[in-house]
Design brief:
It is a single chain. The chain is mainly α and 246 residues long. The protein is 80% helix and 0% strand. Helix 1 runs antiparallel to helix 2 (46-60) and helix 7 packs antiparallel against helix 8 (184-215). The longest helix is centred in the N-terminal third of the chain and has 36 residues, at 6-41. It is flat, with a radius of gyration of 23 Å.
Length: 246
């Protein structure tokens, strides 16, 4: 570790900032794509469902890394302009993880009870009003936990951009390793960096989930420790035995 000077540490810290930017921009694009495609896949018109379903199948079955290469190297051949690697990576990650997220949106929207839709019709709401005032507010809290998983996967997926020369955490670690010849300390450090970033994102999403549930009148779930869960299981077992004996 003594051979890792401040200049080399600075490379890793700058890589953290690039990784954070990639995660923010890619997740913003993925959220828009997920919402649009997810709602389209639950649309009443078959042509809308077909087009959105085709997008979902294509991008779900495509490697994010190959898509990055295609956007960066192949797309310019047809349009005559080229994105910088940072934005090519953002576009590839956003489109890929947006396809995954669209399934989350579709499932959450279709899980809303039909009675809620019927109530909107009884109130003479337009389809857009039903979606905005009834369906999405109830579906949104159910989307957050799977979105949290996708966000963490996207964060880890940003390491792919190092192959394109984007100076993220993984790229900085490769430079530091080449300069010092040390693998274990360098990769242990970036392992911890990714863990800290993922932990911060998870805590933020849990706060968002509690607020979303409170907004529709649901009590947030309290997660206790192992001892409290065992105690709850024991109390349930005792109650069941007492009920059987009676």
């Amino acid at each position: 570790m003594s051979e890792i000077t401040w200049g080399l540490w600075k490379l890793l810290l700058e890589g953290v900032w690039i990784t954070v930017q990639l995660t923010i921009f890619s997740s913003a694009l993925a959220a828009v794509v997920a919402l649009v495609v997810g709602l389209a896949r639950a649309h009443r018109l078959w042509i809308v469902r077909f087009i959105s379903g085709a997008y979902f199948e294509i991008f779900r079955g495509t490697s994010a890394l190959i898509l990055m290469f295609w956007i960066f190297f192949v797309l310019p051949l047809g349009f005559g302009w080229q994105l910088v690697p940072m934005w090519a990576a953002t576009l590839a990650l956003g489109l890929t993880y947006g396809a995954y997220g669209s399934e989350v949106v579709r499932g959450a929207v279709q899980a809303v009870a039909p009675a809620q839709r019927e109530a909107g019709i009884a109130l003479s709401f337009t389809p857009a009003q039903q979606l905005r005032k009834i369906i999405l507010p109830q579906a949104w809290p159910e989307m957050i936990p799977p979105f949290n998983n996708l966000l963490i996967e996207l964060l880890k997926g940003t390491a792919l951009v190092s192959i394109m020369g984007v100076a993220d955490i993984a790229f900085g670690a490769s430079l530091v390793r080449n300069a010092t010849g040390q693998s274990a300390p360098v990769y242990t450090v970036i392992l911890l960096m990714y863990f800290v970033l993922a932990f911060v994102l998870t805590r933020g999403m849990r706060v968002l989930e509690r607020q979303a549930k409170a907004g529709i009148g649901q009590r947030p779930e309290k997660t206790g420790g192992v001892a409290s869960k065992l105690g709850l299981s024991r109390r349930n077992a005792v109650s069941a035995n007492a009920g059987g004996e009676s």
